[in-house]
C-alpha cells in the first residue's frame, strides 16, 4: 500500500474553503463534487479530474484557488480528464472517465 500526503492535501483544500467528503486509495472526493483529485506516481503531483456535469465557471474558480494556495507548497496540480458519476448497485457509485 502506497502512502499519499493526504494530510497536506486536506490542509490545502480546507485553506481555500473546501472540504473532503471521502478518500479511497489514490482518489480524493471533494464535498461539492465539481472535481475529484488523484495522487500521481510521485505523490506530490495531483491530477484534478472535473465533473462533466458541473458548472465549469465554478470548476475553474476552484482549481484556480487550489493552484494559488499550492504555489507555496511542493504539491503540483495537473488537469486530468472529465468524469461522470452514476449510481451503481446499493450504496456504490460508478465513475466513468472521459478522454
For the record, give the distance between the C-alpha atoms at the N and C termini, rounded to a whole number.
27 Å
Query: What is the total domain count?
Result: 1
Elements, N to C (H/E): HEEEEHEE
Are there runs of 5+ residues with pLDDT below 50, and where?
Answer: none
Structural class comes to alpha+beta
> Care to count the β-strands?
6
* Average pLDDT figure: 90
Strand content: 35-45%
**What can be said about the biggest beta sheet?**
6 strands, mixed
Helix content: 25-40%
Strand order, biggest sheet? 1-2-3-4-5-6
Helical run tally: 2
Task: Give me the Rg, rounded.
Answer: 13 Å
Name the overall outline. globular
What structural keywords apply?
99 residues, alpha+beta, 6-stranded mixed beta sheet, 2 helices, 25% helix
Structure characterization notes:
25% of the residues lie in helices and 39% in strands. With 99 residues, it is an alpha+beta fold. A six-stranded mixed sheet has the order 1-2-3-4-5-6. A hairpin with a 2-residue loop joins strand 1 and strand 2. The longest helix has 15 residues, at 56-70. The radius of gyration is 13 Å and the shape is globular. The relative contact order is 0.18. The mean pLDDT is 90.
Task: Report a brief summary of the structure.
The protein is α+β, with helices and mostly antiparallel strands.
Amino acid at each position: 500500500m502506497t502512502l499519499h500526503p493526504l494530510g497536506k492535501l486536506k490542509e490545502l483544500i480546507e485553506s481555500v474553503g473546501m472540504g473532503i467528503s471521502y478518500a479511497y486509495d489514490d482518489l480524493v472526493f471533494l464535498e461539492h463534487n465539481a472535481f475529484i483529485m488523484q495522487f500521481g506516481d510521485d505523490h506530490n503531483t495531483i491530477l484534478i479530474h472535473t465533473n462533466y456535469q458541473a458548472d465549469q465557471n465554478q470548476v475553474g474558480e476552484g482549481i484556480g484557488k487550489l493552484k494559488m494556495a499550492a504555489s507555496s507548497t511542493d504539491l503540483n496540480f495537473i488537469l486530468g480528464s472529465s468524469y461522470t458519476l452514476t449510481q451503481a448497485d446499493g450504496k456504490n457509485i460508478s465513475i466513468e472517465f472521459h478522454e
